Amino acid sequence: MAMRTKSEMSPPPSDQRDAVIEELRKGAQLAECLRQQLELIPELGRRNAALANVSNISTTLSSSVSMLQSDREQYSYSSSDARAASYAAGAACGGRRSGGGVGAQNGAIARTRKARHRRGIHGEELPIKGILTETPENDGFHWRKYGEKKILNAVFPRSYYRCGYSDEHECPAKKHVQQQNNSDPPMFIVTLFNDHTCSALFPANEQLPSTSNSATANSQVLDFTKASLSSAPGISRLKKEDGAGLSVTVPSYTYDELSSYSSLPLLSPTEWKMEMEIKSFFHHHTGGGS
DNA sequence: TACATTTGACCGAT
DNA sequence: ATCGGTCAAATGTA
Fold first, then answer.
1. Over 90: is that where the pLDDT of A160 sits?
2. Is A187 exposed, middle or buried (0-12, 13-18, 19+ CB in 10 A)?
3. Which end of chain A is more exposed for a tag (fewer CB within 10 A), N or C?
4. Strand B: positions under 7 A of a protein C-beta atom
5. What is the per-residue pLDDT for A157?
6. Which range, of A23-37, A66-80, A197-211, A264-278, averages the lowest pLDDT?
7. Does the record carry Transcription regulation as a key word (predicted)?
8. How far apart (Å, rounded) are the C-alpha atoms in residues A159 and A175?
């Protein structure tokens, strides 16, 4: 997860970053040791709660390693970074190799398609934002899924979404969602492409009328209603079990905005608390170097 | 019935 | 030939 924003500090030298990565890996190993110890807790409730916490810590540490590795690239995340991160997660889980693409089934339906122009791929499309989240749908926008693909060396498939207003208002916004791991809740890498042009027509406060009165100028309401729920495993579980829509209000700062507000967390309150605990953990184990 | 999702086929890049 | 990204018919859901 975004331990620190880029603008908060100058980019560390490569060897220093490698040292940080190594420390994070040690932390992940320690977390695994701790997990094994927690397995011995007799009380089921306490054991499960502790295991869940350790699982989240492991996830955060692994994600941090992935992000630091990704930082070698030009931007915070790219699709290839996501692939690398997924590969790391897959390796940790004994990941299998995909044969690439969805399995081909011999032509029950023979479709002849002439070459057609592909939307949005005229010119180079660079990701504008990368987010690691457990709730990939919660950005206040309406998305429509248009594809899913097994990615080489990735355990989980990548889902492709475009803005729900891409047709009506030619909004070019797209995003890729790729599950990172199988923790509870699972983490996802969301890579955003192109800014929403529909956002001027449908400001966040107006996209979900039922909550517009409670949303402030600096917040937006997360959309758990059907329109925004994807087929991601964790989300589908939510959809089935909860039935009715669920709304949560969170700050609506973008990743880039957060980068300029050095101390603002790009995390849910729970994640932020966890990160503070991890920092405290490393503070004690590394002699408190600042 | 309308709309969203699923999924095999297709396409361009490598 | 392989891969990631997209299309669009088939299917699911309310």
1. yes
2. buried
3. C
4. 4-12
5. 92
6. A264-278
7. yes
8. 8
Distance CA A74, CA A96 (A): 29
CATH of A78-100+126-252, one of 1.20.1440.230, 3.40.190.150, 3.60.21.10, 2.20.25.80: 2.20.25.80
Which nucleotide's C1' sits nearest to the alpha carbon of A110?
B9
Does the CB of A245 fall within 7 Å of any strand C atom? no
Strand C nucleotides where any atom sits below 7 Å of a protein CB: 2-10, 14
pLDDT at A215: 30
Mean pLDDT of A240-260: 32
**Residues 6+ away with beta carbon under 8 Å from A192:** A127, A128, A129, A130, A131, A173, A174, A175
From residues 86-125 of A, list those within 7 angstroms of strand C by Cβ: 98-102, 109, 111, 113, 116, 118-121, 125
Q: Which protein residue lies nearest to nucleotide C10, measured between its Cα and the C1' atom?
A: A109
Residue A188 CA to C8 C1' — how many Å?
Answer: 27
